[in-house]
């Protein structure tokens, strides 16, 4: 423990000499003074406020993303960009702080203050609190390429994790639980849209009467394909059978009801 204190004391001496301020108004541990306590994890935990306030102050990530892990995440509020500490494209040193995750994103909506971190498995599914590799909300963002902010993030969010969950002599299951309470994963949100009905009647080149999407995600390209099939007399049923795996992969929390009736012109 003394070696940690001396090493960090040297770090902050260098930062002080270079004129980098490390104190902040928020008492979130970003001043790193808790390291001088006999139980640094407990001292850090006592500094933390209500974690619900922290979660509510950060954007909510999507529950499902594309397996291509594009950056930033398209059509999602919060400017979610790839977390370079857990980038799927990395080969060495990937996800050291989130073992079990395939890749993580950070929400960069400001250059200071809290931000969100969301981690996903290889299928693009959000990793929740109780699962290995889950992300967390951060009291201090690492966005903005600021050395000062990097130090704040290290003191408020990274070093406490090391001391509470990883470092021999200071880590324990109880301390790690305290860290997870103060820096929870948060929640995710599933995309949805109002009920959409397309009712087709009468004319012979309309093959089907009813096609209903309930809580459909905005998969516009698929919708355009379906409209094309309806208006140009293609076989909609075969299309659905061929593309059902696509629909299952890319539409979450969606109920699809398709009823087909062949319509023929009346014979006089």
From TrEMBL:
Residues 1-19 form the signal peptide. Keywords: Signal. The keyword Signal applies. This is AMOP domain-containing protein. InterPro entries: AMOP_dom. The lineage of its organism: Eukaryota, Metazoa, Spiralia, Gnathifera, Rotifera. It comes from the Eukaryota. Residues 33-183 form the AMOP domain.
């Amino acid at each position: 423990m003394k070696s940690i204190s001396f090493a960090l004391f040297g770090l902050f001496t260098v930062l002080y000499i270079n004129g980098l301020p490390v104190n902040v108004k928020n008492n979130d541990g970003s001043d790193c003074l808790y390291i001088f306590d006999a139980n640094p994890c407990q001292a850090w935990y006592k500094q933390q406020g209500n974690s619900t306030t922290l979660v509510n102050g950060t954007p909510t990530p999507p529950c499902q993303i594309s397996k291509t892990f594009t950056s930033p995440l398209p059509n999602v509020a919060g400017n979610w960009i790839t977390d370079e500490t857990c980038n799927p494209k990395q080969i060495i040193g990937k996800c050291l702080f989130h073992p079990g995750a395939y890749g993580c994103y950070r929400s960069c909506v400001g250059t200071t203050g809290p931000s969100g971190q969301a981690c996903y498995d290889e299928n693009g599914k959000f990793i929740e609190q109780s699962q290995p590799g889950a992300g967390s909300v951060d009291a201090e963002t690492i966005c903005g390429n600021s050395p000062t902010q990097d130090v704040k993030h290290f003191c408020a969010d990274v070093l406490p994790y090391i001391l509470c969950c990883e470092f021999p002599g200071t880590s324990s299951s109880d301390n790690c639980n305290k860290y997870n309470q103060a820096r929870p994963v948060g929640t995710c949100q599933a995309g949805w849209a109002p009920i959409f009905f397309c009712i087709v009647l009468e004319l012979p080149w309309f093959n089907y009467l009813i096609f209903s999407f309930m809580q459909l995600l905005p998969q516009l390209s698929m919708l355009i394909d379906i409209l094309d099939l309806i208006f140009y007399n293609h076989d909609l049923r075969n299309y659905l059978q061929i593309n059902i795996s696509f629909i299952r992969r890319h539409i979450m929390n969606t109920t699809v009801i398709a009823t087909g009736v062949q319509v023929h012109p009346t014979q006089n």
